[in-house]
Design goal:
It is built from 20 helices and no strands. It is an all-alpha fold.
Length: about 525
């Protein structure tokens, strides 16, 4: 009587076939090519393979939401391939993989552990499955590997003999066998093998995840009644901290917010630049103090006086964060906007929100899991927006609009920085060229930088592997802007990184002819007839 086939075997070989297919697709789309929209196409194919291999995903609500999120980030990778979108795609995919067998209600703390363990175990997942497959064969009484090799000796040797005879009799077979050869052991072959191994291991972890790993619980501390000395120390600390913060906020209100002149030779840009990051560190330390010293439900946290001091201190910290943002904005106004400064301002906003959540956790008696979940949700939402928005294009547009040469209140335009941005600055450079008040010299430099960026883009867009959808839309935008009037052709000559014409090399110096030295002694002349 035939025994029913266990689900492991059928699902295993289905996933094995899908894994081989994904390796083949990745080789065609990505190997030895710059990542383009093909990276997003591969991401969507991986999601499709996951749905084929794991049909239980569609029955779980969390898994369905995570699948939709991974599809969204796959579309982002098609539009704008980048590391952040790829990481968020992997995060959404990991949640979709594990959700079907994870109980509901787990927070970000447990999920982070599951994702880390899943990623670590996936590196050796194929080896673990081979071991498991071998154990199943031994348990079912299958023949050993040596026995199977013994059974193959006669078919292999006999088939080889007959194939050799047919090769001697048929030139078509002999020619085909002569063309069969292993690929040469070159650098490309080694890199291809390593690429296949990396893709196979990664996709196998997607198709066959690991379950039931022990989780580390969130550290908790007993909230018994503290000693009167500790309560008094915390209260005095809050009074001192509020006084020191009031001094700093008062100086910011007097000079930074009101615009009053600073004493001495200190400028507003120097005052703003020196204080932004130390103030953010101060805010982080304040949040850490509230988080550690004032546990929700403790006797100290319930005292009305302490709660009032915490509310005032959190409000002062929020004013400190606002002052840090204003300092950064003043510094940008005095110098220029960069991607790093945009990211810094976003980080400051996240710090302020985190501090508010810490204060609210104490006042509303929320758990640590609630605090972590809220911070993670807000951070992931911000990162999702950043993965779509090109911060480089935002910085380039702001710098062009506020450049001093075109009547803005900013500094002179740094075309070298726009050149370093590359493609994100392309549309802004074209708008600068077409602006009516752009000086002729700046227009020529902008045209030179724009032409260099377009040259770098063309080679990538001409290859379908590295073609990018957002780049194609930018090029279409440039064509629309130049429809009425063609773009300027920069003056001929070699340019530096900022588009300036390099001075011609100096002419070669004429050869120097040294006078023939006089002899140090008179030549000896012999008398005639001597």
């Amino acid at each position: 009587m035939l025994q029913p086939r266990r689900p492991f075997r059928s699902s295993f070989w289905l996933k094995f076939g899908l894994d081989l297919g994904l390796v083949a697709v990745a080789d065609v789309l990505l190997f030895l090519h710059a990542p383009g929209s093909s990276l997003g196409l591969l991401a969507l194919i991986v999601v499709a393979a996951l749905l084929v291999a794991r049909r239980d995903i569609v029955r779980d609500r969390r898994a369905r939401i995570a699948v939709f999120a991974s599809l969204a980030f796959g579309l982002v990778l098609i539009d704008r391939p980048g590391l952040l979108a790829l990481v968020l795609f992997g995060l959404a995919g990991g949640i979709a993989i594990l959700s079907a067998r994870v109980r509901s209600g787990e927070g970000a703390w447990n999920w982070s552990q599951r994702l880390i363990v899943h990623t670590a175990i996936a590196l050796v997942g194929p080896l673990l499955d081979l071991i498991k497959l071998g154990r199943l064969k031994r348990r079912r009484g299958r023949r050993s590997t040596l026995a199977l090799l013994g059974l193959l000796i006669m078919p292999v040797i006999g088939g080889g003999i007959f194939l050799a005879l047919f090769s001697a009799a048929n030139p078509l077979i002999s020619d085909a066998l002569a063309r069969l050869a292993l690929p040469p052991l070159s650098v490309e072959t080694i890199l291809r093998g390593l690429f296949w191994l990396m893709v196979a291991t990664t996709t196998w972890g997607v198709l066959r995840p690991r379950w039931k790993r022990p989780l580390v619980p969130l550290p908790t501390r007993a909230t018994g009644r503290p000693s009167p000395g500790l309560t008094t120390s915390i209260t005095w600390s809050l009074i001192v901290f509020n006084a020191v913060f009031a001094l700093q906020n008062g100086l910011d209100l007097a000079f930074l917010w009101s615009g009053a002149p600073l004493p001495g030779d200190m400028g507003l840009a120097d005052y703003a630049h020196r204080g932004a990051w130390p103030l953010i560190v101060t805010t982080l330390l304040a949040g850490l103090f509230v988080l550690v010293a004032l546990q929700p439900g403790s006797d100290t946290a319930r005292r009305p006086g302490v709660r009032l001091l915490v509310i005032v201190w959190v409000a002062q910290n929020m004013l400190l964060v606002a002052s840090s943002l204003l300092r950064t904005a003043d510094y940008i106004e005095a110098y220029a906007l960069t991607r790093f400064r945009i990211a810094a301002m976003i980080w400051m906003v996240l710090v302020g929100i985190g501090l508010l959540l810490i204060g609210w956790r104490m006042l509303a008696d929320r758990s640590a899991h609630w605090l972590i979940n809220a911070n993670v949700a807000i951070t992931l939402g911000v990162l999702a927006v950043i993965s779509v928005v090109d911060l480089g294009a935002v910085a380039a547009a702001w710098n062009v609009r506020h450049a001093r040469e075109v009547g803005g209140r900013g500094v002179d335009l740094d075309l070298g920085y726009l050149h370093s941005l590359g493609e994100p600055a392309l549309v802004s450079l074209v708008e600068l060229e077409r602006a009516p008040h752009t000086p002729a010299g700046l227009r020529d430099r902008a045209a030179a930088v724009r032409r260099q960026i377009v040259t770098d883009i063309d080679w990538r867009q001409n290859d379908w592997h590295s073609w990018r959808w957002r780049t194609a839309r930018r090029m279409e935008r440039i064509q629309v802007l130049s429809r009425d009037r063609p773009l300027a052709v920069p003056l001929p000559g070699e340019r530096d990184w900022a588009g300036r014409l390099k001075p011609p090399p100096p002419p070669p110096a004429p050869p120097v002819t040294l006078p023939r030295p006089e002899p140090a002694y008179a030549p000896l002349t012999l008398p005639a007839g001597g």
